Amino acid sequence: APALVRAQSEQVIKIAYNLPEHHATGTYFETLAKEIAARTAETSVKLVPQTFPDGQLYNDTQLPDAISTGATHIGQVNLGFMAGRDAQLMRVWAMPFLYDTWEAEWAAEDSPAMRNAFATQLAKYDHQMLGWMAYGTVEIYTNSPVRLPSDMQGLKMRSFGLDATQLLSTLGASPVTMSSQEVYQAMQRGTIDGCLTGPSSVLSRKLFEVTKYGTNVAMMRLPFVASASKMWWDMLPEDVKTAVGEAAMVAQKASRDQGKADSERVADRLREAGVDVADLTPEERKAWGEAAAPLLADYKAKTGEAGADILAAVAAANAAHPAS
Amino acid sequence: MAMRPRVLSWPGPLSALRPVLRHWSESFFFDEVPMLRITQALAMVQNAILALSAMALFALPLITAYDVTLRYLFHAPTIWATEISIYLLQFAVFMTPGALLADGNHLRVSFWIETRTGLTRRIAETVTALAILPYAAILIWFGTSYTLRAFDRGMLSPTLLQVPLWIAYALIPLGGALLVLGVVLKSLTLWGEQDKAEARA
Amino acid sequence: MISGSIVAILLGVLLGCLVAGVPIAFSLGLAGAATIASASGLPFLVQIPLTLQRALADPVILAVPMYILMGEILYRGKVGQQLFDVANAWVGRLRGGTGVSAVTAFTFFAAIVGSSMASVLTIGRIAIPEMEKAGYPKRLSYGLSVVGGSLGILIPPSIPLIIYASLASVSPAQLFLAGLLPGLLVAALLSVWAMLAAPPPNTIETAPWSGKHALKVTLRALPDLALPVVVLGGIYLGIYTPTEAAGIGVVLALLLTVVLRRSLSLRDLPEVMISATRHSAGLLAIMVGALVLGSALTLIGLPQFLAKQVMEAGVAPWVVLLIMNLAWVVLGCFLEVISIILITVPVFVPVAVALGFDPLWFGILMVINMELAVITPPLGMNLFALKAILPEERIETIIRSALPSLLIVLTVLTLVWFFPEIALVLTRL
Ligand code: NA
Ligand code: NA
Fold first, then answer.
1. Residue A58 in contact with residue A72, Cβ under 8 Å?
2. Within this chain, do residues C123 and C234 fall inside the same structural domain, yes or no?
């Protein structure tokens, strides 16, 4: 456990995440840090946050463990790097074509069914869930045109994390594991045919120079989660917990707003950079939904009633915030 | 460069310590025979680990070549090659530091220690070996809690293979324990060879 | 937020352990642990197993043991002899011909392996006796060998370049291209040095040059000569990644030495494997230790602090670069290449990029500095490799004879500094 919290004291806390400061997830943590500093200035413990962006302290793979063990006080959780029985219910986060709109995603995430389920499951990993942030969408980038699921058959696709890999296998593609630094060259030389990633990283890693085709379908709308180390959290006085909780709400809104705005611009920026980005017809979208259906069926089978509750919340959110 | 401990001559002023140290080693181990047995058993463990690691590392290029062939010729890469390779590498890297220590294979800056001779050298060598113990203790203590946590929660690798993570994590505390054995073996060798030399004299 | 006493603890433990002769791997780890514990308290030492897990999680690290294994197989399989014979058949009769042949063999071998020690051992073992026979002064033959061996990390493939690429988020293949011309420049300067400083050849003793003979020797060595072409060719054709190329290289090296040349028997293999394992595990233990120290530095915010100081001080970019170079030289005396890279890259690269330096060029400058590091005492890997070939020679003599050759590396460092195109031109094709 971190150093004991003393009354009227000041405590330096570490906030670690894996993406750059200017990314919507970075905005979450930088806003969180600023808000925590401001809101705990007069509480029984004054928290002094110190942020570690860009995976400086821990990367995607280590962050869930780092939070569990108290090696960081607060951190980013990319759920794709958590697997095991207690993570099963949370797999809904990466189901393809789950949400129709950003607002539907946010409404579902904020519904008691989903929020409580995630908080409960994360607590089993000694995480105190603070809130959601926007990673953005995941799209398909390839060197051959992809409009229908059948176009994916036999493509060698770079993948990472459990969910993207399962989706690729379901679609008939061959998932390939390689370091993110090798993707550019592997795309350029044809070692792989494509990759599944966010449009923002296509820009930041200059993948647009070596990819010909992309999709603009919001195949997945990924949220990341912010968690605090539960060992630390449980020792905080109530007034400080309240202040951190309020800070987290402000950060969540800032991150979602930026995530949506970034996402609306990014397809056009990729087109300007020379990538053939496909907007799919409703029929084509439907074909993708059907191709990915086995994943959803598998999720339902494995999660039973708890999963059904979450999916009902998702359906309600989609009904309340339909695509115009 | 790292070097094997060898039989060293006793220097002048420090030779006063000699009976004390000899008494200590005798009273602790009673005589030379069980000590030799301990040394041999420890050396055997370390050698076995080294041999297993050599096989693990030799498997890496074979697995890589197999995966490249499947991907390039048959468009069907494995789902396990990279992940298994990383576990094999972790085995070799986390488990062998003790064996390397006992054999004097770790790289070090030796310009000072190699100017020492006799008992000073032996003491210096022992101190540099014992200095490693706190690090080994950290590996054992924090590595164990890290491993147990993964075991309790049934954590799996986030890949299609779904390997229980505690297996990979356990290499860290096990490696720490082997490192302690390496320190013990190195110290025994350092002081044991002197006893043999004295027995001959 | 940087506390002077924590930095003092860090440096005290690190230097104390290093100078006392504690293995580098544990000196780094202990300094990291002491820093974490004093900055954040004992419970935060849980950061160490997390960092250890992370250290080997990136698939690019798999290249390290595979390149080392390949070097070991080629060394035991006496592949260096073929390479040296070819070069010698063509240019051996010239003044300085034996030296030029050695440099050519070093260059070629550098295009196969990813480290410098394997180069010195494999080629040096053959070239040094030949140069001795030709009456070369030690200054020349040892100098050519330590610098020629260091080409192993500058000419692709290269373990340090792969690790830099991973840390700095640049393409390893681009970085490989950037290392090629500077590497050839070093080789060219070494050849010129050999031609100027070698004694005149003893033409009476040797047979006259024969094109037929040279061609015959070349044809015989064709499989050896094809090795780098296949390894690097496969990368550029997209058949495999630079990491995977190491594995393909091992398999090819086995085919060449065990099946084709039979210079390595199956009975020798266990010894080759064990020896490569000692070398790999030792190097990677250092890498892991360096990462523990690196994560401790991050925890106390030292990289950010230094970067901020440099940016706010407003000194000229070239001054910053000079300071970084001096830091590399000093660290290069005491630490091993991979640990220097792991500790300095996260601190230096963000600053370098903010100052407008090209990260590919910066990486090449760093690796040229690492060529110095493998030669500078007290910890110079290539000096140790030379000592291993020449067990009778005193290490002091080796050091004194090898040091003047540093001038060649410094010359190339200066040239690449002032003419970045030497590194970058190939990456823009
Ligand atoms: Na090389
Ligand atoms: Na050095």
1. yes
2. yes
CA distance B98 to B80: 29
Q: How far is ligand 1, taken at its centre, from the CA of residue A124, in Å?
A: 48
Domain assignment present for residue C92? The answer is yes
Ligand nearest to the Cα of C249, by number: 1
C68 and C6, same structural domain?
A: no
Whether the pLDDT of residue B137 is over 60: the answer is yes
Structure-derived torsion over alpha carbons of residues C343, C345, C348, C350, reported in degrees to the nearest 10: -130
**C307 and C174 co-located in one domain:** yes
pLDDT tier for residue B197 given thresholds of 50, 70 and 90: low
Q: What is the reported pLDDT for B13?
A: 40
Give the N- to C-terminal CA distance of chain C in Å, as an integer.
46
In a domain, C282, yes or no: no
Q: Which of A154, A162, A176 sits opposite B158 (nearest CB)?
A: A162
Tokens in use for C383?
A: 């000096």
Average pLDDT over residues A241-264: 96
**Cβ pairs A/B, distance under 8 A:** 57
Q: Quote the pLDDT of residue B199.
A: 55
Say whether A61 and C239 touch across the interface (CB within 8 A): no
Provide the 10 A C-beta neighbour count for residue C149: 30
Domain tally, chain C: 2
ipTM exceeding the 0.95 mark: no
Q: In this structure, are residues C126 and C84 in contact, taking their beta carbons and an 8 Å threshold?
A: yes
- Closest CA–CA distance from residue B160 to any residue of chain A (Å): 6
Give the pLDDT mean for A299-303. 94
Q: What percent of chain B has pLDDT over 70?
A: 78
One domain for residues C48 and C158:
no
C331 and C230 in one domain? yes
Residue B2: closest C-alpha in chain C: C23
Distance C62 CA to ligand 2 centre (A): 25
Partner-chain residue, chosen from B145, B153, B157, that has the shortest CB–CB distance to A86:
B153
Residue B104 has pLDDT above 50, yes or no: yes
Report if residue C177 sits inside a domain.
yes
With CA atoms as reference, the chain C residue closest to A13 would be: C40
In this complex, how many residue pairs, one in chain B and one in chain C, have their CB atoms less than 8 Å apart?
185
Is the same domain home to C215 and C343?
A: yes
| Residue with tokens 């059904």, as numbered in its chain | A308
Range list of H helices, A155-237: 162-170, 183-189, 199-204, 230-233
| pLDDT score for B35 | 67
Domain that holds residue C1: 1-57+292-300
User: Are residues C52 and C79 both part of a single domain?
Assistant: no
Closest CB to B142 among C24, C46, C377: C46
Q: How far is the CA of A176 from the centre of ligand 1 (A)?
A: 26
Mean pLDDT of A151-161: 89
- Chains near A with 3+ CB pairs less than 8 A apart are B, C
CA dihedral A16, A17, A23, A25 (to 10 degrees): -100
Domain boundary among C277, C300, C323: C300
Q: Within chain C, which residues score under 70 in pLDDT?
A: 1, 202-207
Q: Which residues from B are below 8 Å from A91, CB to CB?
A: none
Instruction: Tell me: do C158 and C53 sit in the same domain.
Output: no
